[in-house]
Amino acid sequence: MRVRNRPAVLRTRYYTINSDKEAYYYSLIVCHVPFRNESELLFENETTEDCFIRRQRDLRPLQGNVSAEQFNHAELIIQQAVAHATALNAARETDVGNAPMLCVGEQIINDDDNFCEDMEERSVMSDECFLGSIRGLNIQQKDLFQKVTTAIENDLHTQESQLLLFITGGAGSGKSFLLKLIVEHIKRCYAPTVDILLKPNFVEVGSLTGVAARQIFGKTLHSIFMLPIEKKNTMTYKKITGQRLENERRKWRYINWLIIDEISMVSYENLRIIHLRLQEYKNNDKLFGGVNILVFGDIFQLPPVKGHWCFVQPPWFSAEVNLWQQFSFCELTINMRQRNDSEFIDLLNSLRVGELTTAQLELLCERRHVPLNGEFADGVAVRIFPTLRQVDDYNDKMSKENAKLHRTYRINAMDESREVATYGKKPPENVIPKDVNNCGGFLPSLKIGVESRVMLRRNIAVSEGEITCEK
């Protein structure tokens, strides 16, 4: 036997909670729980995580002067470093020049419904799911993903660069899928740069409406940037000061990325307020406070309810820089949802630009299906109208039909004055505007009946004394 001149290095596979949860907890149990028979470590039908939690008191520390909190902190730092390396290595492998060609009959799964996400820990994605999602990107998506990665690497190396990018494409082109993947990529790349105990946030995701924000696990732009309520078709920008400004600057200290979905619904006036607000948050006079911004959406879809299109600068702002013209353009044209139905893809693209042919219209009518019975029968199914007046007329009609069978209630708004002299008191009737557009869109009263279906259309901060309501 030959004696070693230097200590041997014990090599073992390192598991993370994201890559292999069962193996991760089992490795901790084997290393830190005393045992004589390995088969007796776990109870029957017990997961390794449950066993780890049950035997926490039996854990044997590596050193007597290392606390469980310190050990856990070090473990999290290692996991962040592994996730960081995984993200950057995966991004380098997405070189579009080396993209593999698909074989006949082979299909890439790229659909929002198949996206791996955990509702409870939505910011955590397993390495397997993350890498699988990257491999499923088409050549256009890989090119965009690489642009984002380059911007991240430049930012991490403190190079002066800012990415302002508008990503568009028709339905089924994978915009939402790519958005969620980019969010995960940003979190993984920036995680090791800040102590995890600070619980930093590196990317903010938002959309104009609550429904759209929920789809991307984000927030409403009103809550993120304190956008003013529209009154008389105008929006007045007010700077924030004091403790509120300090809180926002602390929150945005590590945030270098902003992602906005459904940009078509964001007016230029709101985009300008976001630009000014970011300058406040970051204490930076650069465009959008120097924050990298990705905006997703299809301009052929819903326009802003009030104000100008995001790409139309109002004349009274002509002396300022045109914010929209600072964005680069990226279009996703490959449909990932109806890959095997080219005829239907052409139909959808023609419908998107309002140029349906007679043959396409006939095909669309053939695929129309209106159930005549069941809970989705005509008359019960949700209908979509182009104007609010038509919506209100139809809702009134359905409410009258519902009132024949069920009791109907009227709920009146409770108005309070915010003026200093009359704060908290009900203002006189002649002071309250009759036009709902001058009241932030809130109606003076709501009619609601038993078995009525309610859709929330106003998302207002309760802390400001306003409520979420609409019929």
From TrEMBL:
Q: Does Thylakoid appear among the keywords?
A: no
Give GO terms for biological process. DNA recombination; DNA repair; telomere maintenance
As its record notes, the protein acts as a catalyst of:
ATP + H2O = ADP + phosphate + H(+)
Checking InterPro entries in the record gives:
DNA_helicase_pif1-like_DEAD, P-loop_NTPase, PIF1_helicase
Cofactor requirement: Mg(2+)
Residue span(s) of domain DNA helicase Pif1-like DEAD-box helicase: 137-359
Q: Does the keyword Cell cycle apply?
A: no
Q: Which GO terms describe its molecular function?
A: 5'-3' DNA helicase activity; ATP binding; hydrolase activity
Per UniProt, the keywords (alphabetical) are: ATP-binding, DNA damage, DNA recombination, DNA repair, Helicase, Hydrolase, Nucleotide-binding
Q: Give a single Pfam family match.
A: PIF1
Endpoints of the signal sequence? none
Query: Which SUPFAM superfamilies does this one have?
Result: P-loop containing nucleoside triphosphate hydrolases
Question: Which major enzyme category is it?
Answer: isomerase
Q: What EC numbers are recorded for this enzyme?
A: 5.6.2.3
Q: Which PANTHER family match?
A: ATP-DEPENDENT DNA HELICASE
Give the record's family classification: Belongs to the helicase family.
Question: Know the name of this protein?
Answer: ATP-dependent DNA helicase
